[in-house]
């Protein structure tokens, strides 16, 4: 279990973190969401010991994280980087050894991880000769080679095409299955919603929402009703008593229930206007929630 | 999976050594330096086998025969001098042959014709021969001839008695120290620059953020300096050994114990000098964020190294002069100046020890400075950093995150 407890950090006048707390449990994947400059990278760097907090602490397995703990964490920084002239294999071995592995163990682990990400045959080539996609895979291999108990990934999905996203999601699933705790940041909120067990949304260095994805989605805002009538008829929804139209999505009209509003009354209104083809009530999407909490 | 600090430094140094030796830059620099050393080691021996300098001299006019007789005699008294004399029809032939380069000089009728100028050795030859011809005629007119005239015209040369002659070994040693100083300067600057570019490459490629998650900035710095230093030291020792063996085989120098001691001094001063310069170069690297910025962040250092090299050259000419004395106690120049002064026997042991102490203290100081600037500057990945800001950031150990 990784716990960030009341982390605060200032850079001169800039407040990067303001009492941020969050926790990541083994076998769980935690999405970390916030606008640019919200403090995600700073929180991750503090977790890895690259920066030290002005206040608060990082705990691992119930005690303050040590240098050795941090060295064992797998880390993929947002600013990707490997030695361009070093071969993929040598590079992964080097990072494995810096994480504390012995020479033979590191070689075996590097060969295995490169094989598993499909770079087995190209492991002897310098990084600069690999495609960007393959360089990105190597970067991931560097973070995974020691089978760390905690993976900290800063924007791991940025720059990946949909196939790459699925492949990385698959790799992360494997890591979760073996019991690793994963925390990652991303701007792709639909992806975060789909992939994460828990999420933390931060704004200006403070947590504004945190918890299991479903709980967070229901914690704020109001539920939405999505109604589609045959023929795409939508004018019926204007000027309803218990709900207001917030948008249209194809044939669907999207309504927000007002406090005290009754979804059944909306359904009745729809039925009296025409033939209802679909009617759904759902919590706001993460994207909508995010917009709401970071702009308030 | 615990690791001692030393083990981390060893891993980092090991990577530097492996990757540097594999690099194309290393192979090229080794090849160029070896060519230079072999040239310096072989050439003096090869050139000194050329034997005496032979001058082609034409004679004309009334005294042509007498001059032709005197020139070889004068040449025989000179140092490695020989002469090839030709008799010419007249002054015009002399002018023509000197112009075409067939003759070095044409002498007769009280004048000498040369292409550009009468050099010292050629001047000695023709003036002395002319003096003897004129003197012979004058003596003969006064009734002095034969052996007496010969003794007047060509007295026995003065016997030289040097109180403190420069031995051949000493001359060899001075030459060696000079070559050694050039090598030392090249290694200090070349491998120092590698430290700076190594630091900035890790920043430019962003790999440094992963490294810093695994090792402290001080360990990264120490590993890099030690790794590159070991490569530089190994290369220098190889150069010295190959140079000395080649020079002794080709006959350029003898290899007495003194020569070996000069070699040890040059190598020893490399170790101290490198530790000093490498830490400062690391500062230059930490202040830049792209290779292009290195030039401006390392320029002051490069100038100091060049100034020190010129101080060393000056010291070579005057090992006990004011420049030599001052440069002995400045950490930038001491590594290059001291081998020269010690080889010349122009510095007392106390001053050598004091100089070593000054350099050692300076190393400790620049290491502390470098570790702090490195820690402060190494995560500064965009734009050039001011030294003051790096020091301030080094106190807090990090830079603001660029995003998130």
Please describe what this structure looks like.
The complex is a heterodimer of chains A (296) and B (404). With 296 residues, chain A is of the alpha/beta class. Chain A has two domains: 2-218, P-loop containing nucleotide triphosphate hydrolases (Rossmann fold); 221-295. Chain A is built from ten helices and 14 strands. In chain A, a hairpin with a 2-residue loop joins strand 9 and strand 10 (206-212). In chain A, helix 3 packs across helix 4 and helix 3 (88-98) runs parallel beside helix 5. The radius of gyration of chain A is 23 Å and the shape is elongated. The two termini of chain A are 31 Å apart. With 404 residues, chain B is mainly alpha-helical. Chain B folds into two domains: 5-45 and 168-396, no CATH class; 51-153, Periplasmic binding protein-like II (D-Maltodextrin-Binding Protein, domain 2). Chain B has a four-stranded mixed beta sheet, sandwiched between helices. Residues 396-404 of chain B have low confidence and may be disordered. Classes of the chains: A alpha/beta (296), B mainly alpha (404). At the A-B interface, helix 1, helix 2 and helix 3 of A face helix 1 and helix 8 of B.
CA-atom Rg of chain A in angstroms? 23 Å
The neighbouring-strand order within the major sheet of chain A is 6-7-8-3-9-10
Following the backbone from N to C, one meets helices and strands of chain B in this order, namely HHEHEHEEHHHHHHHHHHH
The overall pLDDT of chain A, averaged over residues, is 89
Rg of chain B (C-alpha, Å): 31 Å
Total count of domains of chain A: 2
Q: Would you list the SSEs of chain A in sequence order as H and E?
A: EEEHEEHEHHHEHEHEEHEEEHEH
Record field, number of beta strands of chain B:
4
DSSP helix fraction of chain B? over 70%
Number of strands of chain A: 14
Indicate the multimeric state: heterodimer
State the major sheet of chain A.
6 strands, mixed
Number of domains of chain B: 2
* Strand numbers in spatial order across the main sheet of chain B: 2-1-3-4
Cα-to-Cα separation, first versus last residue of chain B: 31 Å
Beta-strand content bin of chain A: 25-35%
What is the SS-derived class of chain B?
mainly alpha
Stated plainly, the CATH topology of the largest domain in chain A is called Rossmann fold
How would you sum up the global shape of chain A?
Answer: elongated
């Amino acid at each position: 279990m990784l716990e960030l407890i009341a982390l605060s950090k200032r850079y001169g006048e800039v407040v990067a973190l303001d009492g941020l707390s969050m926790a990541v449990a083994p076998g769980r994947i935690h999405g970390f969401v916030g606008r640019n400059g919200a403090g995600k990278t700073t929180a991750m760097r503090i977790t890895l010991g690259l920066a030290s907090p002005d206040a608060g602490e990082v705990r691992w397995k119930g005690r303050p994280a040590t240098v050795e703990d941090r060295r064992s964490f797998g880390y993929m920084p947002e600013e990707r980087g490997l030695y361009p002239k070093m071969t993929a294999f040598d590079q992964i071995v080097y990072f494995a050894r810096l994480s504390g592995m012995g020479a033979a163990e590191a070689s075996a682990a590097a060969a295995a991880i490169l094989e598993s990400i499909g770079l087995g045959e190209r492991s002897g080539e310098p990084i600069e000769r690999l495609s960007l996609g393959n360089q990105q895979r190597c970067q991931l291999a560097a973070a995974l080679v020691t089978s760390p108990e905690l993976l900290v990934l800063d924007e791991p999905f940025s720059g990946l095409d949909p196939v790459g996203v699925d492949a990385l999601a698959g790799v992360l699933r494997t890591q979760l299955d073996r019991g690793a705790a994963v925390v990652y940041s991303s701007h792709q909120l639909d992806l975060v919603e789909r992939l994460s067990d828990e999420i933390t949304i931060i704004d200006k260095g403070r947590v504004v929402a945190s918890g299991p994805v479903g709980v967070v989605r229901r914690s704020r805002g109001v539920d939405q009703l999505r109604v589609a009538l045959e023929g795409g008829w939508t004018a019926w929804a204007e000027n309803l008593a218990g709900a207001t139209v917030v948008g249209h999505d194809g044939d669907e009209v999207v309504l927000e229930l007002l406090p005290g509003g009754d979804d059944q009354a909306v359904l009745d209104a729809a039925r009296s206007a025409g033939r209802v083809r679909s009617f759904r009530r759902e919590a706001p999407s993460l994207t909508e929630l995010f917009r709401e909490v970071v702009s308030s | 999976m615990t690791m001692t600090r030393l083990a981390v430094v060893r891993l980092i140094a090991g990577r530097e050594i492996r990757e540097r030796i594999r690099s194309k830059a290393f192979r090229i620099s080794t090849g160029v330096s070896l060519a230079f050393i072999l040239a310096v080691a072989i050439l003096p021996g090869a050139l000194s086998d050329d034997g005496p300098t032979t001058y082609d001299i034409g004679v004309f006019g009334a005294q042509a025969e007498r001059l032709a007789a005197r020139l070889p005699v004068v040449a025989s008294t000179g140092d490695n001098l020989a002469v090839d004399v030709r008799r010419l029809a007249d002054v015009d032939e002399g002018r023509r042959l000197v112009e075409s380069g067939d003759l070095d000089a044409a002498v007769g009728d009280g004048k000498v014709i040369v292409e550009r100028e009468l050099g010292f050795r050629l001047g000695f030859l023709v003036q002395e021969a002319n003096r003897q011809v004129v003197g012979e005629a004058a003596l003969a007119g006064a009734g002095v001839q034969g052996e007496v005239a010969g003794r007047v015209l060509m007295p026995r040369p003065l016997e030289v008695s040097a109180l403190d002659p420069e031995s051949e070994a000493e001359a060899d040693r001075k030459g060696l120290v000079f070559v050694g100083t050039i090598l030392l300067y090249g290694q200090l600057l070349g491998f120092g620059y590698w430290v700076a570019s190594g630091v900035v490459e890790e920043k430019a490629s962003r790999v440094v953020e992963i490294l810093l998650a695994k090792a402290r900035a001080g360990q990264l710095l120490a590993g890099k300096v030690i790794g590159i230093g070991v490569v530089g030291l190994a290369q220098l020792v190889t150069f010295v050994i190959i140079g000395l063996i080649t020079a002794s085989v080709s006959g350029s120098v003898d290899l007495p114990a003194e020569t070996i001691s000069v070699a040890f001094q040059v190598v020893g001063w490399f170790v101290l000098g490198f530790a000093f310069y490498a830490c400062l170069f690391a500062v230059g690297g930490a202040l830049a964020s792209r290779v292009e910025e290195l030039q401006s962040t390392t320029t002051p250092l490069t100038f100091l190294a060049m100034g020190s090299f010129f101080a060393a050259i000056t010291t070579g000419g005057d090992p006990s002069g004011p420049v030599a004395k001052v440069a002995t106690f400045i950490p930038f120049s001491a590594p290059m100046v001291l081998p020269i002064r010690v080889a010349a026997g122009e510095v007392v042991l106390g001053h050598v020890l004091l100089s070593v102490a000054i350099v050692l203290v300076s190393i400790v100081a620049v290491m502390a400075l470098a570790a702090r600037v490195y820690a402060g500057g190494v995560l500064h990945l965009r734009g050039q950093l001011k030294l003051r800001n790096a020091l301030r950031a080094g106190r807090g150990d990090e830079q603001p995150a660029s995003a998130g």
